[in-house]
Design brief:
GO molecular function, one term (chains A, B): calcium ion binding
Largest interface: A-B, 23 and 23 residues
InterPro entries (chains A, B): EF-hand-dom_pair (IPR011992), EF_hand_dom (IPR002048), S-100_dom (IPR034325), S100_Ca-bd_sub (IPR013787)
CATH topology of chain A: Recoverin, domain 1
Strand order of the largest sheet of chain A: 1-2-3
Oligomer: homodimer
Protein name (chains A, B): EF-hand domain-containing protein
Pfam family, one (chains A, B): S_100
CATH architecture of chain A: Orthogonal Bundle
Number of domains of chain A: 1
Order of helices and strands of chain A: HEEHHEH
Radius of gyration of chain A: 13 Å
Organism (chains A, B): Meleagris gallopavo
Strand content of chain A: 5-15%
């Protein structure tokens, strides 16, 4: 498996490790997402910024974060921090 | 840097290595995207499927693939293959 595919599979695995099963889909709740970002981006982001990010993101209204929303959030934070 | 963040940074780097600079944004064109998927998912996907995937994806109409579209495409293919 290429380094690229290994990276893709790591991200999918990490999502499923943290997300709770919700019917046929896994989802993050907002609190868990905040904790996750704080842990992963601890050295590059302050808590108030995380709150702003979570507020700005247009969730699909259910207050929970599905895989696509997780992806876009994580990569947006990563690009902002690095 | 955590394994998770390392994976995120690998994906961002690979995108920028392959995408051409287009003003202030980098983009993939359709041909390059097809080649990229063929290379990365060679052992798990046939060419006709790649064409279908590229057709189904709702590009924003400019025929080019920006970073978010690249993300969603790659993870959709990865989840379908593995």
């Amino acid at each position: 498996m290429s380094h690229f595919l290994d990276s893709v599979s790591t991200i999918i695995t990490v999502f499923h490790q943290h997300a709770k099963e919700d019917g046929d889909q896994s989802k993050f709740n907002r609190r868990k997402m905040k904790e996750f970002i704080q842990k992963e981006f601890a050295d590059a982001i302050v808590v108030s910024t995380i709150d702003k990010i979570l507020q700005f993101l247009e969730w699909d209204g259910d207050g929970e974060i599905d895989f696509n929303e997780f992806l876009l959030l994580v990569f947006r934070v990563a690009k902002a921090c690095y």
